Amino acid sequence: MKKIGRNEPCPCGSGKKFKNCHLGREDELPLDGMGEFSAEMSARITKLPNVWYGRSREMTDELDIQKLTGVTAGVRFIDLNAYRDLDLLDQKIRGPEQEGTGGIFVNVLKTRHTDPDHLYIALSPDIGDSALVHQLAHVLDYLGGSKLMPGLAKPISFDMGVPVEHIEHPHEFGYWLDYLQQKFDVELDADDAIISYLYTNEMLIKGSDIERQDPVIVKSKSDRIMRFLSEQSAAIDDLICERQGYIGSRVKKD
């Protein structure tokens, strides 16, 4: 990987110069944000066999991505364990590993060298409906929503001192999550139910605000989310207490 110049754009995707962003803390940069992913490494991903776990075939067959987003692109699904075995650093796996419901939206910088026409999602064989629509919502958000590059959330979150979840799931992501949930009649897990609740109540941060990276705006809106979650804690607890992924679930007694 070539050395990054001090005045070059930071490879995290923040839009700042490297010297004003991650210079001196390069270890925090995920590989998927470095921008110098080789064609050979790209091919290792794109040559993995296509898989159809859970309802992945049904959902993608019924989604007209070009009509929805205005972008011509396909989606390919690859096995999560096969992808992890490539030993490439990536964003965290969504969903408890022990439950086999994980999924990763593979950063486009990793695959565009050898397959620019497709976006890749790595799935576990037991992928659940909520985890699947979550990853598809990321794809639709990237193509026709906030259009934020995957891997951008963590460094922005670190720099601005806000929870990474507030950056990973902008308002536009919430729109697509709700769209997919309704289209495919999916019961969202606890985490996604909270995102949907925040979206319905106009609490999620818009992608344009995140892209501008104004720390005052982003931090104030993040704080607004936290206050809302605190004020609505009882209603949210009632909403998610019996959903998958709720830690310390309390089943209501008659």
Indicate the topology:
Blueprint: H1 39-46, H2 56-61, H3 65-69, E1 74-79, H4 80-85, E2 103-105, H5 108-111, E3 118-123, H6 129-144, H7 153-160, H8 164-168, H9 171-183, H10 190-200, H11 207-212, H12 215-231, H13 233-240
Parallel strand pairs: 1-3
Antiparallel strand pairs: 2-3
Helix pairs in contact: 6-9, 9-10
Mean pLDDT: 84
Taking Cα atoms only, what radius of gyration do you get, to the nearest Å? 18 Å
Name the poorly predicted regions.
30-35, 90-100, 249-254
- Portion of residues within helices: 40-55%
* Proportion of residues in β-strands: 5-15%
- Main sheet properties: 3 strands, mixed
SSE string: HHHEHEHEHHHHHHHH
Taking strands numbered 1, 2, ... along the chain, how are they ordered across the largest sheet?
A: 1-3-2
Class inferred from helices and paired strands: mainly alpha
Task: Count the beta strands.
Answer: 3
Shape: globular
Number of helices: 13
Q: Distance between termini? A: 61 Å
